[in-house]
Amino acid sequence: MLQYFIRRLLLAIPTFLGCTIVVFFIVQYAPGGAYEQQLNALKKGNGAEGAGSALGTEGMAIPPSQLEALQRYHQVNEPIWKRYLIWLGTWPRPVDDYQAAIGEPRNVGEGHRVIVKKDATGQLAVFEYENQSVRLDEWHIDPSKTANSVWVYRLERSGLLTFDFGRSFQYRKPVTELIMDRIHVSMQFGLIGFILSYIICFYLGVQKALRHGSTFDVISSSAVFVGYSIPGWALGALLLVLLGGGSFLQIFPTGGFQSNDYDQLSLIEKIGDRLWYFVLPTIAYTISGFATLTMLMKNSLLDTLGQDFIRTAYAKGLRESRVIWMHGMRNSIIPLMATIGSVISVLLASNYLIEVAFNIDGIGKLSFEAIVYRDSNVFFAFTVINVILTLVGSIISDFMLALVDPRIRFR
């Protein structure tokens, strides 16, 4: 079994890279990306009519230095394969780049100053200025020039493999910081919904199987499929109108995930406050996934109870409760174990439309805003997280299957 899981882990690497390549190429060639948005903003910011713009569009003149800085930041002049490797973190990218006039000192951050001039061989090089302690071996010169200036920069390997997703163009913050600020909210919401879904669906599926064909089975099936047919975000909006102070009752909060005075509450009060805010969104999230898990559990148990080994257990005189819970249940939960991996990504992403409907500032809402505002770096990060969780969840599902079913042996 160990060799099987090692092979699965090794197979996950090319699968992960393949997914990132597809997403990267789609975003790079999709219209209205980050580069085009910033270019348009730069045009509107300059707002001056010129004889011809730097790109020859709309007559807006963009200073060559600003245009070059923008192109350097997005690496638009680099081939697509190199841009992917830079984003992945396997190819060094220019960072801390500055435009420096030849022969004039230039600040390069943290009070350090350098000067670009010719060395003994007549080639341009970067020198310390006023004996400042600068690691000159880190600094490079871009051969391209703007008037009498050049670009000096450092090279650094940073990208996906170092969990550096760049900066958000919408929030003007590092994407990793945005995710870390919201991850605890989505994890709490997703974990509560995940646990409740499996507990309720497990119990309901067992009861429906034991009472197959009864009035309870018919009514519960109708209720489950009605809930399944209503999208979670639509049910959430309805709950807000009915119970969240919309047009009827003011029982639950209207949105968000905590009170304004949350920081002044005690630990017990904080837990109660958070749970109170999660009641409606958890109901909206959980009901939408009832049908699949409930019917899966019911049909699996019905199939197991018709097997020969169950009839043999009854023939030996074992109690019905022992036959069902000790012999039948272990085989019946196998399909449920197989679905755990596919929903693990929900623990972080939850349901982004539900987070939007309830104004829960989690990763799901952040990803929704990234799609709306074409914030490519946030979208990349969200996609990468989902791919990783899906691959990990698939491996966990295989492990859970082997754990509960002794007949399964991976080789």
Automatic annotation (TrEMBL):
Keywords: Cell membrane, Membrane, Transmembrane, Transmembrane helix, Transport
Keyword check for Metal-binding: no
Domain ABC transmembrane type-1: residue ranges: 183-397
Localization, UniProt: Cell membrane
Pfam families membership: BPD_transp_1 (PF00528)
Transmembrane parts of this sequence: 9-30, 185-206, 218-243, 275-296, 333-358, 378-404
Primary location group: membrane
One Gene Ontology term from the biological process aspect of the record: transmembrane transport
Cellular component GO terms held in the UniProt record: plasma membrane
PROSITE patterns in the record: ABC_TM1, PROKAR_LIPOPROTEIN
Topology relative to the membrane: Multi-pass membrane protein
Similarity field: Belongs to the binding-protein-dependent transport system permease family.
Annotated protein name in UniProt: ABC transmembrane type-1 domain-containing protein
Organism: Candidatus Kapaibacterium thiocyanatum
